[in-house]
Structures are given as structure tokens and as C-alpha cells.
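Dock adenosine-5'-diphosphate; give full complex structure.
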Amino acid sequence: MSLLEVCGIKKNYGTGKAQTQALININLKINKGEFVAIMGASGSGKSTLLNLISTIDKPTEGKIYIDGADITKLSNTKANEFRRDNLGFIFQDFKLLDSLTVEENISVPLIIQKKNRDVHMRKISEIMNLLGITELRDKYPFQISGGEKQRTACARAVITNPKLILADEPTGALDSNNAKNIMKVLVDINSKFNSTILLVTHDAMSASYSQRIVFFKDGSVVNELNRKNEIPIEFYNKVSLINSEVQQTCN
Ligand code: ADP
């Protein structure tokens, strides 16, 4: 069974002449342990879909199932609980808490889940080690670089073993070297913890680290590409080509 199933999703904003059809008819399945990227230009509907999957907005039509549960039916309170218990988030601007150290930031989701942080210290150490941030454990966000902040945010996203990690333009605020390093971190998280990752990006380099890319244009899925045995740089050439074809054919 798919971990994420998006069925016949439409999303309109506004009404009448002012109406925008942000998503026209989206169908998408992601299996457990897959690392999938949604790629598309600005305005193609990526954030709208991410907001629906994150349970912070509701579709106009259609259903979204995560591990069999229809998340479009949840009340606000249930949606908050669902997010807390099942989803991990990585944002473009990191969203770390400035008054907490790296280690404390990573443990925030455990505290929100009322888990005993001491019991999870081994996991926190294991993740900091995997992500190469053990040395930073007692530093505050203002004392570390952008790449290190995003590593910390990646560690925070995976600490509770969420069913699904949603990464929204995670490399958008980073230079190309740090961007590549963060994408390698996501690949490591995917393989080491069998995490299911949905990445949203407009950037072909970032997308080329995923296993499968779904191309969005004007609120629809217009193409899909699977990475076979290619390394990211080989896949990147294909991704760039398809991306430029997608932009041309639909313009
Ligand atoms: P992307 O994330 O790919 O840049 P979005 O999902 O943000 O695309 O936007 C898709 C379309 O929906 C765009 O035409 C955008 O202007 C429109 N849109 C997004 N959010 C709103 C909103 N809150 N109200 C009205 N239109 C919106």
C-alpha cells in the first residue's frame, strides 16, 4: 500500500472571476521509503499541494491518504495532532529556535510529543553523528552557518521517525556546495532510516538527488522521471532536459 495517496485533488482560491485554479486534478502515490521530488516553476502549485498534504489547508475536491488515513477529513485539533505525530518538516529558512542550542532544537519534537528526552539521547547522538553536527551540539543558531542550520533542521525532522518528511525548498537559502551537502544528507536519512521524503523544489540539481521526479506545470502533473542507476550528476542532465521541455511545451 502507498504511504501517501493523493486522489483527484483540485484546489481553487477565491470565487467567480477572481478564482485561481491552483491544482486542477492531481493524482500521486508515494510508497514507504521512497524519496520523491515535485519539481515545477513558481506558481505551478507545489506549495498549494504541500499545504494540503501538511494538513494546514483543505482541498476543494479530492482526498489525501497518509498511511491509509484520510487527512482531508480531520478537524483542526486532530490535524494538529496528526502533524505532530506523523510528519517531519524541513523549511527553506530552517525555522530553528534562536534561544535553544543545536541539541535542544533537535529534541523539540520529542518534547512536543511528551517523550522523555533522556531516553532518546542515543538517537539524538546517532543522528547528530550521521549529519556531522556532533561538535555543534552546544552552539546556538547564530553561532553556526546556513548549511549547519539546515543539517540541524534535518536532524529535527527525523528525530521522531515521522511517517513522512516534507522538505520545502530546503536548499533555497544555501550556496551550491552547501545545497549539494544537504541533498546528500537527505539521501542518507532516506537510506539509513528508510524515511519517506517528499521534496518540493524548482531546482533541478536538488531534485536530481531524489529517486523519482514528478513535474508540475500550471496545477497539473505533466511528466515523471525515475532515477535508475544514475548518480545525481547523470540524472541532473535528464532532469534539466525534461524541465526545459516541460516549460516550452506548456507555454
Ligand atoms: P508554487 O509553490 O509552485 O510557486 P503556489 O502553490 O504557491 O505555486 O501557487 C499556485 C497558484 O495559486 C498561483 O497562481 C498562485 O498565485 C495561486 N495562489 C497560491 N496561494 C494563493 C492564495 N492564498 N490566494 C490566491 N491565489 C493563490
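Observed: The longest helix spans residues 232-250.
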